[in-house]
Amino acid sequence: MPRDVILVDPLPRTLDLIMEPGVRHRLEQLGELFISEDKPMSAEQIDDLLPETVLIFGQTDMHTERLNRAQRLKAIINVESNFLPNIDYKTCVERGIWVITPAAAFASPVAEAALGLGLDLARGFTEADRDFRAGREQYGLAGNEGTFRFAGAPVGIIGFGDLGRQFRELIRPFKNPVRVFDPWLPAEVITTLDCMPSSLEDLLYASQLVFVFASVTSENQSFLGEAEFAMMKKGAAFLLMSRAAVVDFPAMIAAAASGHIRVATDVFPQEPVELDDPVRKAPGILLSAHRSGGTRDAFYALGSMAVADAELIMRGLPPQLCRRADLATVNRLRSKPVDIS
Amino acid sequence: MPRDVILVDPLPRTLDLIMEPGVRHRLEQLGELFISEDKPMSAEQIDDLLPETVLIFGQTDMHTERLNRAQRLKAIINVESNFLPNIDYKTCVERGIWVITPAAAFASPVAEAALGLGLDLARGFTEADRDFRAGREQYGLAGNEGTFRFAGAPVGIIGFGDLGRQFRELIRPFKNPVRVFDPWLPAEVITTLDCMPSSLEDLLYASQLVFVFASVTSENQSFLGEAEFAMMKKGAAFLLMSRAAVVDFPAMIAAAASGHIRVATDVFPQEPVELDDPVRKAPGILLSAHRSGGTRDAFYALGSMAVADAELIMRGLPPQLCRRADLATVNRLRSKPVDIS
Amino acid sequence: MPRDVILVDPLPRTLDLIMEPGVRHRLEQLGELFISEDKPMSAEQIDDLLPETVLIFGQTDMHTERLNRAQRLKAIINVESNFLPNIDYKTCVERGIWVITPAAAFASPVAEAALGLGLDLARGFTEADRDFRAGREQYGLAGNEGTFRFAGAPVGIIGFGDLGRQFRELIRPFKNPVRVFDPWLPAEVITTLDCMPSSLEDLLYASQLVFVFASVTSENQSFLGEAEFAMMKKGAAFLLMSRAAVVDFPAMIAAAASGHIRVATDVFPQEPVELDDPVRKAPGILLSAHRSGGTRDAFYALGSMAVADAELIMRGLPPQLCRRADLATVNRLRSKPVDIS
Amino acid sequence: MPRDVILVDPLPRTLDLIMEPGVRHRLEQLGELFISEDKPMSAEQIDDLLPETVLIFGQTDMHTERLNRAQRLKAIINVESNFLPNIDYKTCVERGIWVITPAAAFASPVAEAALGLGLDLARGFTEADRDFRAGREQYGLAGNEGTFRFAGAPVGIIGFGDLGRQFRELIRPFKNPVRVFDPWLPAEVITTLDCMPSSLEDLLYASQLVFVFASVTSENQSFLGEAEFAMMKKGAAFLLMSRAAVVDFPAMIAAAASGHIRVATDVFPQEPVELDDPVRKAPGILLSAHRSGGTRDAFYALGSMAVADAELIMRGLPPQLCRRADLATVNRLRSKPVDIS
């Protein structure tokens, strides 16, 4: 009887990063682990293992030829969280090989950070602390000049996947009217969660806070630029939580600097940001170094979701926690791989 | 038929501060307004008006003798929000004169600010922005070192009146276990809102975030001091949202400076804070200049709640929105009057 | 030092009915109990005990003269749940004697029953079961003829005290638009709970289900009669959960019999209902024998709320769980005392 | 340019049953409709249309040969709601043809009915109405003998798909501890919704109300029988909301008749039930003629969900509302087709 090989090739992740001991133990019950953590697994080792491989944890290139050698393969589980163009997805579909990713692991910390940053832009905590330290604080009503209440303020959400929906749940007690723009979704998905389906324009005109959770696709690069920022209300807040490529970054900085809008961003066109990048001095922007999602618990959730679905797949059941690589969407995605865990 | 006089003596508030035109119009339907906004109403004018006065909006001294002259008086509505020892409360009780205050108007903005500041201490937004501007930001997991997730973290609430309860509702989506210490409340009030009644000690030992919403009373001045801060977990967050007098302020600053806990405070022993006060340079503290409650909408809510209850009282019905000055509690309260609106 | 007497005169309740052993034990810590359960306490015994009495649990007549003899009395706690005209309320107010009742103990079971009966009228469970037993059931869509979905249906709530508000919380997941008619409340109380303040007429015209939780007052007896039922939509549901005296009962039966509306009632003008009362054969009515509130747990809650507030009062603090007998409202109430526990 | 044919073969449904005019109009924008409603579409017509067919709405047999003729086919949308063994699912997977069904359309009315029936078993409405009509009603506490409060009672859910999860949301305000048994799901799916993953045995022992929403599979027929009913608490409630085949029906009737448990059932081994079937006289059972799901709005939701997903598919996007026929599960399902709409 052949052994069940589990090929673990998780760079830029490591197993320790994403699995607590109990979860790793569960993984080891599913087969024999072959792990390459310090560098991508060698082509030689991959070729050697593929005939016995049942599960791949990682971002290993899996072109047609390799898939052909892996006749026992049941699933490829991407633990980086973005589907890349290094897999023959069509063959996977035809063979019934699951290609999945536990990307939703980051939704909870990102949604929490989005609310924290949104409250900060609305109520001005960071700026008020800076003013206090500089001896120019104002008290009471005067100290709230130029701020607004988050509660009840019109909110716009751009991109209504896992991140957007978890964020929506977090703000329920604030009773905001919420508009959603997501061209990949039918209205029912949006109205079921008590939001209003909206065009991008209507959302920008109407919202006091705009949260961007959209993935990058072949169709939406830089779709938020000067014209879009100009549509926003004076003093409104714009929060970029997902991918820098969906906005015209210099236009965003300019809109903040002009005082027209307030901005918070967790992502940058290039990371790490250059030491002399002018964004470091930019006024009207709250800066966060791609740290919204990457919390300790989120990486562990990545691993535990991956293993829980692997267990189901090995029992012949469909995965329940990870996102599937639909051909329809995977061909449109254009996210860069992450360099830093 | 005698006219119904409404005596308006709202300092440090003004009518414009607390009433939008529509609300003021409703007030004018209830009687004839006599207003002193730039200074406290003169004793002479008060004495002159009292026999016809049905409602007082303000913090006018109302000792026994004045009450005796005000035989048609139905209610004294404090629009500052703290009951002061300048009223013969006992006579008011005996005469059935309502003494009330719309203090709950501040609960919504304070609760919102408490969550914002709590998210900031947990996830480190203000500090991360400061680091980014200084060129020492860290990305991803490294950028989250020393932070913790707000979601699911044990929360302690000290003082469970309007502020504490509204805050509790705001954090429901985060599914925190919540302990409450409030010696004036039976357990049922706490458990009904899905919190655990707790001793002060247990709360301090168990909580990752401690929020103080307690009023100052004759019994609780400086009840949170060095010993109490020492009980808190290393790295836990302490947020002072109500009154500076309930803590030993220097001990709080020291606990933050030592790195044992993180602190956010909206109140200070003396406001405005002196320019050379060392708190301005203190490490580990997020500073907010008594601005959590005093938002534009909160002052208008103060006025609209006051007028709505005045309408009920004039119809012979009990007030529904304002807090009543129970003899049992009013004698214990020791809040200083507010100097700044 | 005088002893603290607690006078227990709870008919039609008994202590065993309303207190579990642990709660009774807590009561015994507050003073020395003198109990009359099988009959009202004798005037002689009352007079004897009053000088030492600190708390009264029960519906004892407390006219001026008796109050004068009870100089140490701190509270009268009505455990029947309706304030009666057998107390000199004014003197209690002047003396600072709390007169309170844990009536809210019944809110939870009544709200639950209201939803159960409302779902039954909407979806037709009782009638469908009857049809099935008679061999005339219909399946699938045909079996739902004449029914409607509770989810999303416009709901009207008449009377928005403890009962109405707890009911409102129970139906949140159904996302009904909710109109509220309550002339004793300002709009803020209603809008805060995400309902629409409404006139009685608008509510009746617009609602698919009308729930009545109103108390009987000197002003609202039989205020829901033929004209009001005629305003309701054909096929709408009317649920009488509080007091029979607020409706014209024969008109309600006639409206149900005509097929214009569906009715459920938990109360009747006279209880027990006569064996030959035609209501027993009435079509279109779901009958419930005043059993919505009187559950085992509710009676125990009555006792534990009463004792928890007594504990606060003995500490000099205001009660937190019981309703207070405001002069303004108590003079308007006209509920009959309950005959049956 | 070829025309886009939409083959509509919906028996036992009809287009009018499942689509309001506006929805049908949207469907007509997607292609040219060919409809067979009074009988299954003829093999001849199907063969004729397949080369141009892009969408199939219905339960048409689609064996390998037919799929081979339908080279432009993008989706087969089952509008009956159970996947049947009349499709070559493997070929559909290989070709990227979506096979989906809007089964979740029934989740909302079934969940609502489950709560209504659960409240009825707990609080005894149907039985109390029957007693009242028979002149043997009891009032107050006596009238609640043998009942229990739904609020707070331990609930067990067997089968945690769309139905179970919507039901779980409906009962949130009741604050029940909820155990879930579903062998196809990882614990995370259950704990995320604030429920406890449980073995079947623990669930049966611990729950005061057990709700069955499980589908029939090759593995679970009659898995709830005499032994399982015996594990339940005396007086507990058992509600069969999904498929009769998952229980040993005579054992369920016997358990109810013995007084050990109370039962409500919406489904029967054979429907319609024979006129002389003893279940019609069975004591302790609440009978519902497969009417929980088949409400007017649910059939319309079936159609609008189907059309919304068809619109996405025609744009090259994945469906968002319908359930997909995973090979892993579809081979295990054993539901009988519905005979009656």
UniProtKB/TrEMBL annotation, chains A, B, C, D:
Record's keyword terms, sorted: NAD, Oxidoreductase, Plasmid
Pfam family, one: 2-Hacid_dh_C
GO molecular function, one term: NAD binding
Residue ranges constituting the D-isomer specific 2-hydroxyacid dehydrogenase NAD-binding domain according to the UniProt record: 116-291
Keyword Oxidoreductase: yes
CDD domains reported for this sequence: 2-Hacid_dh_8
Domain of life according to the entry: Bacteria
Coiled-coil regions listed in the entry: none
InterPro entries from the UniProt entry: D-isomer_2-hydroxyacid_DH (IPR050223), D-isomer_DH_NAD-bd (IPR006140), NAD(P)-bd_dom_sf (IPR036291)
Record Gene3D superfamilies: NAD(P)-binding Rossmann-like Domain
GO-annotated cellular components: cytosol
PANTHER family given in the database record: 2-HYDROXYACID DEHYDROGENASE YGL185C-RELATED (PTHR10996:SF178), 2-HYDROXYACID DEHYDROGENASE-RELATED (PTHR10996)
Protein name per its UniProtKB record: NAD-binding D-isomer specific 2-hydroxyacid dehydrogenase
Native source organism of the sequence: Rhizobium grahamii CCGE 502
